[in-house]
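note to self: the first set is below, dont mix up w the second
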Amino acid sequence: MKNGKTTAIILAAGQGKRMNSTVQKQYLLIDNKPVLYYSLKAFEESMIDDIVLVTGNTEIAFCQKEIVEKYGISKVRVVTAGGKERFHSVACGLAAISWECDYVFIHDGARPFVDCDIIARAYQTVQETSACVVGMPVKDTIKLSDKNGYVENTPNRSYVWQIQTPQVFEKALITEAYEKLVSEEKILRAANIVITDDAMVVEYFMNIPIKLVEGSYRNIKITTPEDLKIAEIFMDS
């Protein structure tokens, strides 16, 4: 049962340097529609109330006209500019939420295969735990290396997950965590601490346990040309 107002922040401000393309990865086409469309459509068709789309400053008008309006994504309330790095863009997305909101879903716009079932599972879990992330158990053995490239440790595969998005939090919790991150950004950089996802922000600053939620092995992120080919196969199937 739905209980609480929800907003999804869809991140589409990345440059996609590993794609080796002049077109940013979120605008590349799968089945004649941009990658970003599929993420937006999934949240549009889910129980989410509102969407904030975070994109590059020069792409705001394009996204509004050529994606939001063209494909009828009615839940997008704001298209706003992101920042230099991912966490800056999340902070911009959080700052853009000016309406009532209890839970925030943060999702990479380059993950086109998120679906309503994944979103619903995450929503049910965040209501119980305050913070959760979507992911899947790894299939391969994972090795941790030392600084010289030698194996240092082999973690038990049963406890290793590959993290995906959406990552979902109580709004007050994630907002406070990001405010602390932004205020201490220089300190973290000086200490060579790299924040790689939203859960890490909450783990580091709020000391709140993060619940893992089953996603899907299809919920891939389009990062390299090979990923785009895999996405086309998924779409065909």
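second set (the one i keep forgetting abt)
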Amino acid sequence: MRWLLGKSMKIPTVAEALPGSDGYRYAIPDRHAVLGTRLQPPFPEGIETAVFGLGCFWGAERLFWRIPGVHTTAAGYAGGHTPYPTYDEVCSGRTGHTEAVLVAYDPAKVTYADLLKVFFEEHDPTQGMRQGNDIGTQYRSAIYTTSPEQAKTAGAALAAYNEALATARRGSITTEVAEAGPFYFAEEYHQQYLHKVPNGYCGLQGTGVRCAIPAGA
């Protein structure tokens, strides 16, 4: 549980964000600790990528690496302004990033709609700048799309789940949906954290609301 008292719940502007760096200030592992695949591109031909923010990235990454058809996953930072941020900088709320998971997947084995179903059903997308007891802009719900097709499917999924959540009186979705910008890999100890620390912290909790994503979306 990480309470970040006194931190702004407002995403900083570019002018307000920390300056960051021109490169990583730490080493990134070559291989996924569970899947054995490359953590960073280039990926094999036909592999597509998706980026999701579901709160703390430890539990979120584990959700996706367990899905058949997922080639690799990585914890990192997305949706912000500061280049090559560190975890401490992201935690300050002054970079604009949310904790995110990069998912590289084989669309012949698992569809983007399948991944979206996991996304919407395994966390609470109505909580704004928090997820459970994790509070701050870095824990906001987010979908960062990497193609026009993903954007279309994400929009249809959001509308469907918004209706289902409203029917269940669970509130409105606050998920940020935007075109993916740079994804910055998190420090080595964050990568596949819950494989390395099986009893480690995971604050993810779904709403219990299930929904079908419209066919052809």
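remember for set 2: The longest strand covers residues 70-78.
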